[in-house]
């Protein structure tokens, strides 16, 4: 996976049209109440599970050399906890953007530089679309291992990886 990330970074840095900006978009890692039957039994703002904490560490390992200069999460614990290991490793304090404020998030991303966005299963696809990618992206409630890489430019390019 590091080889593929290096390739994507090389393309982004060597092509003038790409404006040298790469946005990494992930869904938060596994929530502590994942698999709980019945919507009424699910917590409104759960912590990450043990598997989720391990996945957050894996994300930090995968992206530690991606030249990320900004990290964005929503107000929910699970997104903040997913971003925390990378933020600590890079010395970046994640910026919290309200989950319903997609326009505000997209505006912040226009600032340039590589960024990580930690979102939710129902917002990852719309965020990627707002970044100019026409390819539809859908996630189910069980999808936690997707890493989307949007390389900016006149026609943004989308790369979809999986991490564990």
Residue windows where pLDDT falls under 50 for at least 5 positions: 10-18
Strand order of the largest sheet: 3-2-4-1-5-6
Q: Supply the CATH architecture.
A: 3-Layer(aba) Sandwich
The CATH superfamily is known as: Phosphoglycerate mutase-like
Succession of helices and strands: HEHEHEHEHEE
Instruction: Count the beta strands.
Output: 6
What is the end-to-end distance?
11 Å
Report the structural category: alpha/beta
CATH class: Alpha Beta
Average pLDDT rating? 88
Number of H- or I-type helical stretches: 5
Tell me, briefly, the overall form.
Answer: globular
Rg, nearest Å: 15 Å
Largest sheet: 6 strands, mixed
Number of structural domains: 1
Portion in helices = 25-40%
CATH topology label: Rossmann fold
Give the strand content: 15-25%
Give a concise summary.
The chain is an alpha/beta fold and 164 residues long. It contains five helices and six strands, in the order H-E-H-E-H-E-H-E-H-E-E. It has one domain: Phosphoglycerate mutase-like (Rossmann fold), CATH 3.40.50.
Overview of the structural elements:
This protein is of the alpha/beta class and 164 residues long. Strand 5 and strand 6 form a beta hairpin. Helix content is 34%, strand content 20%. About 5% of the residues have low confidence. It has a six-stranded mixed beta sheet with strand order 3-2-4-1-5-6, sandwiched between helices. 33% of the residues are buried. The chain has a single domain, classed as Phosphoglycerate mutase-like (Rossmann fold). The longest helix is centred in the middle third of the chain and has 14 residues.
